[in-house]
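Two proteins, back to back. First:
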Amino acid sequence: MARYTDAVCKLCRRERQKLFLKGAKCFTGKCPVEKRAYPPGQHGQGRRSKISEYGIQLREKQKIRRSYGVLEAQFRLMFDRARKQKGITGENLVKLLERRFDNVLYRLGLAASRSQARQLILHKHFLVNNKPVNIPSYTLNSGDVVKVREKSRKLDAIHESLKRVRDASIPPWLALDKAQLTGTVLNAPERADINLNANEQLVVELYSK
């Protein structure tokens, strides 16, 4: 499976904002964005050139794609799928990304980051509707229930992540039962319920050229 292997903090610095790719580190003073809020590289700090319209659209696409940890080919397939649905294409895209299995685990607090969620899924630590699923991109639907497998209920990674979860931080379209280590998709997310600082309409404009 292809994946990004370089330092993920470089991605946040390139987009000049936190993408929350490193779990707990993103909420501490150790976050590189706090110390160096400029793009990485030799000329990052002195870069002052005006960005073109295409550049603005590209940066917005990269920001969304990197936030969810999706590679370019996967992202384009997701966009094509969103375009075929009824409604606003940009919002459809973000809603589809939100319903990815790895993102749902992250939003529930069962994983500290989306990358950790992917690792846990690939190692078959979770069930969906009592069936093992090891595909991070699997799309969850209303009524689906995810839970930790019986043999994985003592995993430190899961419990450490849950310690940082506050009930108010769980999106309204999801429900978490900490005692049972289960999460339920109550309904499809609305755009207003999605914590993503990005303009998805610019992605639609980029791919429409």
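And the second protein:
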Amino acid sequence: MKAKITVLPGDGIGPEVTAAAVDVLRSVAARHGHEFEFDEQPMGGIAIDLHGEPLPPATLASCKSADAVLLGAVGGPKWSDPNAKVRPEQGLLALRAALGVYANLRPVRVHAQLAALSPLKNEKLQGVDMLFLRELTGGAYFGAKTRTADTATDECKYTVAEIERATRRAFEFARKRKKHVTHVDKANVLETSRLWRATVTRIAADYPDVTLEHQLVDSMAMLLLSKPAAYDVIVTENLFGDILTDEAAALAGSLGLLPSASLGDGKAGLYEPIHGSAPDIAGKGLANPLGTILSAALLLRYSLGLESEAGEIEAAVDAVIERGTLTRDLGGSANTKEVAAAVLVALDSSARKEAA
């Protein structure tokens, strides 16, 4: 297979973790006879410094022509003034909108070897394996905004079509998993949530083999900690999804472990770890590359249709965790490059076993 992958290292630890993921993708391509072309482009704070805007036209053009986009992280103290007219996060929001990636997938799975790192008791973590589907291009993040000296507004707006397409993706994923969808809203207060609830309920009738439940977002925040193993696919709007998925990351033990995939109606997608740019550890070799490497596995699965190769990467990451080659955030002492190298070794070891 031939594929073009646009790489957006971004800011902070972004260049370190994306480099690790690209090395893994190159290894997979060499072993299976694929041809991956990598086009590195600036986005975020580094793009503001170079071009005066967080998503330069050349970067956007490369992303639009790519089969998939791999992103590190954007932002940092240098560009953190909330009153600045140009900020790194604007580039990320603009890219999501331009690519039409409305379904953000965030799988959360707890590795037995890392359960002690979670703030929850181990018995609550048995069987935790959930998939969040966060609607990504609507809601308060994209609504009209106003600001005066003493007032501010952020419009939260959704259309039935936006809700329908995200909801159907959630039910389709649930059909391949444990056939259970939890919809999260604030329908006792918000009109947008009432539209969500009505639409999700209607769509559920088309999936009689999937069980649907509704939860209010404040209750869900509690339930994620009190009985996380009870959930399969969780679908929700943009703002709620942003908050809940970061909370759920604590179950796994570290933000550095979790990948994400942002998908639209076509095969192209945007793939990134859920963590931020962590400027305090940038350049020190302390960043955990596993979330980005696992995002690369999702890239192979959803954009390139390479299920077997995606599984190989995920198995290699599991092997590295089991052997204890871990960065500081997971209680280990390995640096970024050492963890990435361990994943490559695990991939090669698996390939040799298959050949034998």
